[in-house]
Design goal:
Distance between the termini: 11 Å
Radius of gyration: 24 Å
CATH superfamily of one domain: MetI-like
Number of strands: 0
Order of helices and strands: HHHHHHHHHHHHH
Structural class: mainly alpha
CATH architecture of one domain: Orthogonal Bundle
Number of helices: 13
Oligomer: single chain
Largest sheet: none
CATH class of one domain: Mainly Alpha
Strand content: under 5%
Shape: flat
């Protein structure tokens, strides 16, 4: 078990380092922050002074080493736009993003998994076909299209919900629903497939032949064995919560991390963008690591050296 954990942790560390390097290189290749911040009409000597003050005049490899050193010492840099610590600006937006992502995740779990399980237990029924249809629609419609459709229905046509902002709890309903629909469809379909596969296994028929109640067969034998593939999808959803908020927060003018990322990218605010990308990558890596460890607990076969 110790080796199993160490291998997964090393993979997580390597992944985060790769993301840090990729973000650093791509941001430097996307444009000159000095020209974006100061504008095209600023004299060249002013641009050069700006680059020097932020260390942008140094060779790329020197900037990269300085970037790694600052990250490992807990310094995430200073925003070129706001002249404030990048980490502070990002953390200020975290509560707003959590106000959307946490309820959205809860809705995905409370609706998607039970719907998929119910559809699997009533296979080929009208309810099963309805769940499949809604699941396909849910995860095939892009979030920006879903958001615009919800605004058109509930804000423009019916006028019962606001279309943007963060003033009251009502402002969070449409963005939360937008973030939930796709995940509900994915969870419903995966839960259904996992349950159908498990229900066809010999040990389920054996448990039924022994005279166990159908409820005990489902809850005691089928659901625990169907949990492994479902855990994979849930772990991916948890890791991509912040990344998934980028489009939704932009549509509904929600002042969270996603909207901050869009503004920072357009302004080439390197420190803020790097900080957000590192947090997103860290969240995804940690959630995937937790899924791997949970796998090892759910299925002891994965802890064997051959599975590494």
């Amino acid at each position: 078990m110790i080796r199993f954990v160490l291998v997964r942790v090393m993979r997580a560390v390597i992944t985060i380092l790769a993301v840090m390097t990729f973000a650093f290189v791509v941001l430097r290749m996307s444009g000159d922050p000095a020209e974006v911040m100061l504008g095209p009409d600023v004299p060249q000597n002013v641009i050069e002074a700006f680059r020097k003050s932020w260390g942008l005049d140094q060779p790329l490899w020197i900037q990269y080493l300085a970037y790694l050193k600052s990250i490992f010492t807990g310094d995430f840099g200073v925003s070129m736009r706001d002249k404030a610590p990048a980490l502070q600006l990002v953390l200020e937006r975290v509560p707003a993003t959590l106000q959307l992502t946490v309820p959205a995740l809860i809705l995905k779990l409370l609706i998607g998994i039970p719907a998929g399980v119910y559809a699997a237990l009533h296979r080929q029924s009208f309810a099963d076909r309805g769940v499949i249809l809604l699941a396909i629609l849910g995860f095939t419609i892009p979030s920006f299209v879903m958001g615009l459709v919800l605004v058109l229905i509930f804000s423009v046509t019916l006028g019962v919900l606001p279309s943007g902002g963060q003033e009251t709890w009502l402002h969070g309903i449409l963005p939360t629903l937008t973030m939930s629909v796709g995940g509900v469809g994915i969870l419903a379909r995966f839960s259904r497939s996992a349950m159908i596969e498990v229900m066809g296994q010999p040990y389920i028929r054996t448990a039924s032949a022994k005279g166990l109640k159908w409820r005990d067969v489902v809850w005691g034998h089928a659901l625990p064995n169907a949990a492994v593939p479902i855990v994979t999808i849930v772990g991916f959803m948890v890791g991509s919560l912040i990344a998934g908020a980028v489009v939704v927060e932009s549509i509904f003018s929600w002042p969270g991390i996603g909207r901050l990322l869009i503004v920072s990218v357009s302004n080439r605010d390197l420190a803020v963008v790097q900080c957000i990308l590192l947090i997103v990558a860290g969240t995804m890596v940690v959630s995937n690591l937790a899924v791997d460890l949970l796998y090892g607990w759910l299925d002891p076969r994965l802890r064997s050296p051959a599975s590494h």
